Amino acid sequence: MNDPLSTLSQYEEYIKRAANWIWAFIPGFISALILLFVGLWIIRLIKRFTRKFFEHRDYDPTLEKFAQDLINWTLKIILFVTVITQLGVKTTSLVAIIGAAGLAIGLALQGSLANFAGGVLILLLRPFKVGDFIKAQGQEGTVKEISIFQTKLNTFGNQLAIIPNGQLSNETIVNFTEEGIRREALTFGIGYDDDVKLAKNILLDLVNEQETVLQIEGKEPMIVLAELGDSSVNLSLRYWAHIDDFWNLRWTVLEEGKERLEAQGITIPYPQRDVHLYKQE
């Protein structure tokens, strides 16, 4: 049977040790709290400074948000490690735990990390920006949003195409908006018996009448005989236009071109093939 006095002395020893631990822990806890509040206050000041910094510079809005979020979370992680260290947790143990967790997460999320890396490359290298019309991964559309993991395109048919950034950053991207102007090459097929020079003059006059066609030195409208096809003589009508005028101009030239050619007796032949039948005796 245990001695009551011995048991009581053990409890007193435990209480004494707990009190000593609490008294030893309190200064570190208070300093950690102070460090936490001061650190959060400094992070808010830095966020405000970076926001004002980007406001006075012409950067892509998506890049601005990404940079601000990256700075914010990096500073908070550093603050968290510092506060935990102040509470008495050994830095080496904490780093080992974070490293092991990071390795496990990295192996489990390889695809997501590839998309993250692709998003960083897109935001830094800026092959396109929000509002650009691009072609990539078999999709064409206007860039609606660029996030860390994926890019959203609004297609011509008003569908939403979502492309992972990992694939997007490693494949060919055609940016139709970046240069501001774009060249068109429309093909008009006429019959072999038609007057080629007359057809060329009709189409070239049509293009030169359009106010939205650019008349820039070295980029003047032109028309050439591009091909002697199986069923037609193919003329290539080439001109330059601003991105905003491109599609309306294309549709106008196609429709007006057909009407003017037909009005002058120029035929636009259908695909045809001559078939010879021989009577076998």
UniProtKB/TrEMBL annotation:
Q: What is this protein called?
A: Mechanosensitive ion channel family protein
**UniProt-listed SUPFAM superfamilies:** Mechanosensitive channel protein MscS (YggB), C-terminal domain (SSF82689), Mechanosensitive channel protein MscS (YggB), transmembrane region (SSF82861), Sm-like ribonucleoproteins (SSF50182)
Q: Where is the Mechanosensitive ion channel transmembrane helices 2/3 domain?
A: 77-110
Transmembrane portions of the chain: 20-43, 70-89, 95-125
Subcellular location per the Swiss-Prot or TrEMBL entry: Cell membrane
This protein's source sits in the domain of life called Bacteria
Q: Which source organism does the UniProt entry give?
A: Dokdonia genika
Keyword list, A-Z: Cell membrane, Membrane, Transmembrane, Transmembrane helix
Mechanosensitive ion channel MscS domain ranges (all copies): 112-177
Q: How does it sit in the membrane?
A: Multi-pass membrane protein
Record domain Mechanosensitive ion channel MscS C-terminal: where: 186-268
Q: InterPro entries per the record?
A: LSM_dom_sf, MS_channel_1st, MS_channel_C, MSC_TM_helix, MscS_archaea/bacteria_type, MscS_beta-dom_sf, MscS_channel_2nd, MscS_channel_C_sf
Family in the record = Belongs to the MscS (TC 1.A.23) family.
